[in-house]
Amino acid sequence: MTYQLHYWPTIQGRGEFVRLALEDAAAAYVDVARGDKDDGGGGERALMADLAKGDHPPFAPPYLVDGDRVIGQTANILLHLGPRHGLAPRDESGRLWVNQMQLTLADLVAEAHDVHHPVGMGLYYEDQKDEAARRAKEFRTQRIKKYLGWFETVLERAPKGGWLTGQHVTYADLSLFQAVEGLRYAFPHAMKRLEPKLDRVIAVRDAVAQRPNVKAYLASERRIPFSTEGIFRAYPELDPG
Amino acid sequence: MTYQLHYWPTIQGRGEFVRLALEDAAAAYVDVARGDKDDGGGGERALMADLAKGDHPPFAPPYLVDGDRVIGQTANILLHLGPRHGLAPRDESGRLWVNQMQLTLADLVAEAHDVHHPVGMGLYYEDQKDEAARRAKEFRTQRIKKYLGWFETVLERAPKGGWLTGQHVTYADLSLFQAVEGLRYAFPHAMKRLEPKLDRVIAVRDAVAQRPNVKAYLASERRIPFSTEGIFRAYPELDPG
What we know:
Oligomer: homodimer
Radius of gyration of chain A: 18 Å
Number of helices of chain A: 9
Structural class of chain A: alpha+beta
Largest sheet of chain A: 4 strands, mixed
CATH architecture of the domain at 92-211 in chain A: Up-down Bundle
Strand order of the largest sheet of chain A: 2-1-3-4
CATH topology of the domain at 92-211 in chain A: Glutathione S-transferase Yfyf (Class Pi), Chain A, domain 2
Strand content of chain A: 5-15%
Largest interface: A-B, 44 and 44 residues
């Protein structure tokens, strides 16, 4: 069964958390809005048209089509994919814990987006630069530290093995990699200051980057570069040195 | 088994979505930070001390203790409680769909909070009133409509029965009730304009309010009133008539 991933074709965004899980699992999937028609892809127009259909219409991209199921919300997609591809624990308690970590990463991602769009997502960044500068300060000096520090504590207390749940990688580890990458891109100075106290988090980031399927993916054209169109945005004025 | 709910003792906040599920299910629980010591409660200080403990430390309240499990993130707590109390579908596909709707409500709740704290959660509202006024406009005129309009569409396409999944109430219906109540409190003028096109959503709100256990709860002292300390805040300047 080939999955269909529906997401904006030109950014990593929230879709990237799903792409990383699919790539690590070597799952067959079509990135619908990116593919051409020969691949079963239909471009951005198809994305928006499909969004409105069906009994379980997603509120927004990303969403995944798996047979006759249409599944929206990033963490929910991963909750579905994890057990199918060995990226979640087998027991219910472990799965809830991984979901909890994923939802905490989702909160971090939402805050990272709010930094450059504090006044509203319908306005351009250029129209809310002053507000963004105010918001960025708290994010840079307090929030990143709080989130990544929490993951450092989780890793400190986890069973041996180096991953968030110990011996086995989960989709939350892949997502933590992506969060660190995004934060490094958008807030390089802040991250440089914070990373010395985040050894375990950075070790997860490094271990994910070395996983063969992830490594191949990152080196491929399928990996869209970070940009100031996505969730993590590098605006130097929001991350003074 | 008595659940322990850990949440701020003086606000509805995110904890209220959990309280509503526990109350509707007539589940035995202690609202730890609110109870006195005779009830097993320990006040706000105990809340913060407990937060930092254990192998699965929650990032923030609310969290639920169920036996030896500590479960954080509102949607994750409900994912755990739903099947145990008849508040989620029995099939996996149905459970994912309810989780998806709950996560969409979580996004709405986060945006409702950002309206009065666009620049940062560490600052007072009074120090970001101008930014809040800008953000409120988009929320009032576009975002509420987009979210609740989506739920209206979901209800329009759902199997007969009036609930989000048709014939049986789920925790997502209880949460939709809470979202409507919060929005009515914080944005009464905006909601008055929007509600004529939200018949099905309001019917769910009304049906939840009439459920015997919910009705008894809402009339009890256990229901904390809305206030300008919570997530939904009534600041008249953010909702001009």
